[in-house]
Amino acid sequence: MEIKNQKKPVSRKKFLFWTVGSLSVFTAAKYFFHRGPKSNTRTVKMLAQSGKLVEVDVTNLACGKRKKISDDELKNWVKNK
């Protein structure tokens, strides 16, 4: 009598074959489904009037004359809760 549902041990050769095959599929998929280059958007960190640090895209800034403000002006400009 033979038992039909008897599990056979997997040979080392088959195990290595399937492991290397699956790793190569994942590696190939990485190159085939590669996304385009990241956009070169540049952001600048600025202080909002609420006192939080926010990132602003450079294209949204005015290109006029830039002037640094003093510490006293900054302390009066930021609204504390």
Description:
- The chain has helices at residues 12-32, 71-77; strands at 43-47, 53-57.
- The chain has 81 residues and is of the alpha+beta class.
- The chain has a domain at 43-77.
- A two-stranded antiparallel ribbon has the order 1-2.
- The model has no long low-confidence stretch (mean pLDDT 81).
Task: Pick out its properties.
alpha+beta, 2 strands, 81 residues, two-stranded antiparallel sheet
Detail the topology: elements first, then pairings:
Layout: H1 12-32, E1 43-47, E2 53-57, H2 71-77
Antiparallel strand pairs: 1-2
Order of helices and strands: HEEH
Q: Span between N and C termini?
A: 85 Å
- Radius of gyration, CA atoms, in whole angstroms: 31 Å
Average pLDDT number: 81
Put simply, the count of helices is 2
Residue stretches low in confidence (pLDDT < 50, at least 5 long) are none
Number of strands: 2
Biggest sheet, in brief? Answer: 2 strands, antiparallel
Share of β-strand residues: 5-15%
The general outline is elongated
For the biggest β-sheet, the strand order reads 1-2
Which range best describes the helical content: under 10%, 10-25%, 25-40%, 40-55%, 55-70% or over 70%? 25-40%
Which structural class fits the helix and strand makeup? alpha+beta
